[in-house]
Specification:
The protein is an alpha+beta fold. Among the domains are: 6-208, no CATH class; 513-647, no CATH class; 649-739, no CATH class. Helices cover 47% and strands 11% of the residues.
Length: 739
């Protein structure tokens, strides 16, 4: 196919019978002169390419489509308006700079608005003095009314002329040099695709955006490697791919952003498949992605094409009626994914994603958070869709559940952080996904370039391997296990219950859906110290809160990190409760915890668990986190935030004193660990309530608690203080202790 130039297109004898070029009213304003970030980047890249073409071996700008009206032989561009306009401005600049005075420039006009039409007509006859920026000089002309600045085409052209003046001032013989810039022109009347192209480029709204330049570059990259591939993909963009994306058009009836967002997302997958990090790229720079990921890389081009085609095939299954198949892809994902609750045959999406129609989110939200999660989940579907003959639907559902469970429980592993200890695990994670989806096996070792790579959480992978074996041997137990996995407090990790403990599945769900969280907390603690030590000063317990804060506490207990101590005791307490023969309700749970309290009183042994259960002040409806230094359980401080003490934190024993009226109602909090008390401050230590001086913090006296040799209270210190705080004999002064 031969190319043409702008001059040839508007020449007297141009071979097409064209008498002029008119940008019609249906087209949108000139966009390459806008000031938004994307337009600036597009303008800079386009002019740089033109400049390189002028000083080098030339440049081909790909296809421009148009309709030549029979009546007056005017060319109406349908695809290429932006490029044609910029080419006209470049020729105008060269014509004026070199004093060419070529009459062909008058054969180009804008009919989007009268102001744009009149501006171009005036510009043709204008001779600049070159004493100032072109936009300033033009605006100073008597024929330029101020209201023309309100026309985006006029203001955009002025911006572009200033940019051209800056960039091309060093080009000699530019008028002739522009003959090195060419493009392909197609008259749609001579093409069999006339109706399709016209519908896509006109009836679907304002058609021409900065995207057309990207498309030209995309096809150019592909054409340089394989002409037939470029031709095939070019047709798909104009037809099947646009049809598929039409359901996701924007408010201007354009699919450009949807296309680019999907292109960027697939490019991100390819970055990881090449064992690279997204941090090496500007993933919003589409042209850089083209250059670095697709130029000379036929396999990547094929993957991109297949990804689009996979979505097209799903879209086509919706039927021929556009209204019927508008959300065929959304319905496809809803067959496999659930947003928040268990549904047979589906898996609940990770909370880092939270959407069922993940394709829509990819198209509409390029700045989505947790991109590695989206990449991993969508890649799982692509592997399935690209290998339809290798994977049965039922197998895919089971394997997808494995991937999702791994995603939910690999928060420290699903990362692209080359500078951190975890590094960039996504390339290895995608290799693991391939193994799972294609073979149903979780690979013991992932190797890339001969190097062993960490991928998902090792603990979760081991659990998933065991569950795969269990469900294969016990298919009748699978649905119950899947329902347990999908429960929001477990998120796929069921070790705290035990996948082998089938009889506990329903009891766990009943416990955490029908019973009070406070009752569960106390009952479990009465069985044993199920708290988990996070570090030397902080422990995690459950929470009586039934909302988001409480969910965080219980979820943390059921998903401890590798450094957390005490998970086995949590598991033991919970399983003991689930395996008991009592009916799970608040009344029975309270009986169990009350029995523990009574037993402590009978034995006169009051450990910290007794106080936690007996006094509600200990059980703040927050995140279930407490300051408890090693060996200091009686100095428990309830945290208000997730990670540290704040002004709302409080020492639990002191709060219990207040709520039990063991101190005067006039006492106030001085800070996290002190109450105002008798012109001083009161705090709790392991073996006493201590009164300190308000001014210097020195100890004034202490109310000693009776304890056994193991340091466990032999009296209820709350009750003891309430009964004896006024007994001066119980208060020991520092000098008396030293004596």
């Amino acid at each position: 196919m031969t190319t043409t130039t702008f001059k040839s297109l508007i020449a007297d004898s141009n071979g097409y019978g064209i008498k002029g070029v008119i940008i019609p009213r249906i087209q949108r304003s000139y966009a390459q002169g806008r000031s938004d970030v994307h337009a600036v980047k597009t303008r800079e890249r386009f002019l740089s390419a033109i400049h390189s073409g002028l000083t080098g071996s030339g440049l081909t700008l790909d296809f421009i489509y148009g309709n030549i009206r029979n009546a007056d032989r005017q060319l109406i561009p349908l695809d290429g308006q932006q490029r044609l306009t910029t080419l006209w401005l470049l020729h105008w600049y060269a014509d004026k700079k070199e004093n060419i005075r070529d009459s062909r420039l008058s054969r180009f006009s804008y009919h989007t608005r009268p102001s744009a039409r009149d501006f171009i007509a005036k510009l043709v006859g204008f001779i600049p003095t070159w004493e100032m920026p072109l936009s300033h000089e033009i605006r100073n002309q008597g024929w330029f009314p101020m209201e023309w600045d309100n026309d985006p085409t006029v203001s955009g052209m002025l911006t572009m002329l200033d940019e051209i003046q800056t960039r091309f001032a060093d080009i000699d013989d530019m008028w002739n040099g522009l003959d090195k810039i060419n493009f392909y022109f197609r008259d749609i009347e001579k093409m069999s695709l006339t109706d399709d192209i016209y519908i896509k480029m006109n009836s679907r709204g304002k058609p021409l955006t900065d995207f057309e330049h990207f498309k030209a570059e995309l096809l150019k990259v592909m054409r340089n490697d394989n002409e037939s591939v470029a031709k095939r993909i070019g047709l798909k963009i104009d037809r099947e791919w646009t049809d598929m994306l039409w359901s996701y058009r924007d408010s201007d009836n354009l699919v450009d952003n949807a296309f680019l967002n999907f292109f960027r997302f697939i490019s991100l997958i390819l970055i990881y498949k090449e064992d690279r990090s997204a941090r090496e790229f500007d993933t919003s720079d589409d042209f850089d992605l083209l250059e670095r990921l697709y130029k000379g890389k036929g396999a990547n081009v094929e993957f991109l094409e297949n990804a689009f085609d996979c979505m097209v095939e799903i879209h086509k299954k919706g039927g021929e009626d556009p209204d019927e198949n508008a959300d065929a892809i959304g319905r496809f994902f809803s067959v496999y994914l659930s947003a928040d609750i268990h549904q047979s045959g589906k898996v609940v999406v990770p909370r880092q994603i939270g959407r069922v129609n993940i394709f829509r989110e990819i198209l509409e939200n390029d700045s989505m958070k947790n991109k590695p999660y989206w990449v991993t989940l969508f890649y799982s579907f692509l592997i399935y869709l690209m290998n339809p003959d290798r994977i049965e639907d039922s197998d895919f559902r089971r394997r997808l559940r494995v991937v999702v469970n791994l995603l939910k429980n690999s928060g420290n592993e699903v990362v692209d952080s080359p500078g951190s200890d975890a590094g960039n695990r996504i390339p290895a994670i995608l290799k693991q996904v391939e193994s799972i989806i294609l073979s149903g096996e979780i690979a013991e070792c992932i190797e890339i370039d001969g190097e062993r790579r960490y991928n998902f959480s090792a603990a979760q992978m081991e659990e998933e391997r065991r569950k795969l074996k269990f469900t294969a041997e016990n298919p009748d137990k699978s649905e119950g296990l899947f329902e347990l996995e999908d429960f929001y407090l477990l998120d796929g990790r069921v070790d705290v219950v035990g996948y082998e403990n089938v009889h506990s599945y329903k009891r766990f769900l009943q416990l955490f859906t029908e019973c009070s969280r406070d009752a569960i907390d106390c009952a479990m603690l009465s069985i044993g110290d199920y708290s988990q030590r996070i570090n030397n000063w902080c422990v995690q317990l459950g929470s009586s809160d039934s909302g988001e804060l409480g969910n965080y506490a219980w979820h943390s207990l059921f998903h401890p990190s590798g450094k957390t101590v005490g998970y086995d005791q949590t598991k033991k307490s919970l399983r003991t409760l689930l395996e008991s023969d009592m009916t799970l309700n608040d009344a029975n749970l309270s009986k169990k915890s009350d029995a523990y309290v009574e037993e402590c009183r009978r034995r006169n042994l009051y450990d910290w668990r007794y106080y936690y259960i007996a006094y509600p002040a200990f059980r703040g409806e927050r995140y279930g986190k407490y300051t408890m230094y090693d060996g200091q359980p009686y100095s428990l401080v309830a945290l208000h935030s997730k990670q540290r003490e704040s002004s709302n934190a409080y020492q639990c024993m002191l709060m219990a004193l207040m709520e039990s009226n063991a101190v005067a109602t006039s006492v106030e909090w001085y800070d996290t660990r002190h109450l105002t008390f008798k012109k001083g401050l009161l705090t709790c230590t392991e073996d006493a309530f201590v009164s300190t001086n308000l001014n210097d913090g020195e100890e004034r006296s202490r109310f000693v608690i009776q304890q056994n040799i193991e340091g466990i209270d032999t009296v209820d210190r709350i009750q003891d203080f309430r009964d004896n705080r006024r007994n001066e004999e119980r208060w020991i002064r520092p000098e008396e202790i030293s004596n």
